[in-house]
Write a structure and sequence with these properties.
The chain has 229 residues and is of the alpha+beta class. Helices cover 21% and strands 33% of the residues.
């Protein structure tokens, strides 16, 4: 049976297009901690689960994104699970004439990007998360009001929209939609189909994504595991 890359996005990005960011071995991999806590085991065998546990330091968390809950390896505990929906935009909406100008973000913007991500919690954020790929932001009077960028690439031709976040006092102005359209335009230009993950209970976000051309592909589960001391 052919493996669908999006069914195991973390495993496939770490053994495929983003293997240069992977730490581990054939049984389990994790991304460079600076980029975040994502990890995946080859399968649910005892050897693979032990290898997964070995990728974390005592007290450290690993995040798994799979089609279902994952067994907890010996030496770890389950912090929480969260139901997700995985969405794909086969026909993404292009930028609109009235969209605000989106700035390319880089090293000079790192502190502002981190402050926004940590305050709004769009997902795991590390000191190198902004280096996954191109990020864009919208500024107001010099302040970074909102941003969006990219993260996982499970296979050639597929890229994830991620870190979509807006300061609370700028919400309701359509900034997230404008930024997602800009990110997707970059994907389209290089031949990538956009996908993303949303918490299944976030109806507002899902509605926004659907208005931009995304459709729910399948349900997923995020499992957060912590290494015991």
């Amino acid at each position: 049976m052919k493996v669908v890359p999006l069914d195991r996005p973390v495993w496939n990005c770490l053994t495929g297009p983003q293997a240069h960011l992977a730490l581990g071995g054939d049984s389990a991999w994790r991304i460079d901690p600076g980029f975040g806590p994502f990890a995946a085991a080859r399968d649910q065998s005892a050897a693979a689960l032990a290898a997964l546990a070995g990728l974390a330091m005592p007290g450290e968390e690993l995040w798994l994104v799979e089609t279902g809950a994952w067994p907890v390896p010996p030496g770890m505990d389950l912090v929480r699970t969260a139901p997700l929906v995985q969405m794909v935009a086969a026909s993404p909406m292009a930028p609109l004439p009235g969209d605000a100008a989106c700035d390319s973000l880089g090293e000079p913007d790192a502190a502002e990007m981190t402050a926004l991500a940590l305050a709004t919690e769009p997902g795991p954020w590390g000191e190198k998360t902004r280096l996954y790929g191109q990020f864009y932001g919208i500024r107001d009077a010099g302040r970074l009001a909102a941003m969006a960028g990219e993260r996982m690439r499970p296979a050639p031709g597929i890229a994830e929209v991620s870190a979509v976040c807006t300061w609370p006092d700028y919400r309701g102005q359509g900034l997230a939609g404008q930024l997602i359209r800009r990110v997707m335009a970059g994907f389209t230009a290089r031949g990538d189909v956009p996908f993303l993950h949303s918490y299944a209970g976030n109806a507002t976000a899902i509605g926004l994504y659907e208005s931009l051309g995304f459709e729910i592909r399948r349900e997923m589960v995020a499992s957060v595991l912590r290494r015991l001391t």
